[in-house]
Amino acid sequence: MGGRESVPYLERYFEDYAVGEVVEFGDYAVTEEEIVTFAKAYDPQPFHTDPDAAKGSHFRGLVGSGWMTGAIVMRLFCDHFIPQCSAMGSPGIDKVRWLRPVRPGDRLRARATVLRTVRSQSRRDRGTVILLQEAINQNGETVMSYEGRAMFACRPRA
Fold first, then answer.
1. 73-101 burial, b for 16+ CB within 10 Å, e for fewer?
2. Which residue blocks in the chain are alpha helix, DSSP H?
3. Domain extents in the chain
4. Phi and psi dihedrals of 58, rounded to 5?
5. Residue 55: is its pLDDT beyond 80?
6. How many alpha carbons fall within 13 Å on the CB side of residue 84?
7. Which of 62, 71, 83, 135 has the highest CB neighbour number within 10 Å of its CB?
8. Distance between CA atoms of residues 34 and 69, nearest Å
9. What is the pTM of this model?
10. CATH superfamily of 9-153
11. What is the mean pLDDT of the chain?
């Protein structure tokens, strides 16, 4: 199947991803409660957990943990981009960057850009798609980016 952009993302197989393809999806509202709850459990720094202390920080207000932003992006990818029919997990991510703080009231969406596709030489039933994955806020600013590697099954032969 080549050209593939017409295949819905949640129904794709390895062959359906085209280098250079870009897609944006999702709409996630970040709340103060979520920022504080996540940070208290996983990243308990005062500018994530205490709105008053955060006012005196270099952020001048409460900001979400970068790890929370990553979890939000993962949720958006699961809901809108990763097909259950072919997804085989990820061997990892590279070049993680937190570019701007995420604040209560921000609305995030995700963007995926297909950088490369690599068919497995040892297991011909799968391949890896290398993606630039980004979180974008309501102002169109990239707040987080990373290079993700996703493994997908090849389309079953009829």
1. beebbeebbbbeebbeeeeeeeeeebeeb
2. 32-42, 46-49, 51-55, 66-80
3. 9-153
4. -65, -15
5. yes
6. 2
7. 135
8. 11
9. 0.91
10. Hotdog Thioesterase (3.10.129.10)
11. 95
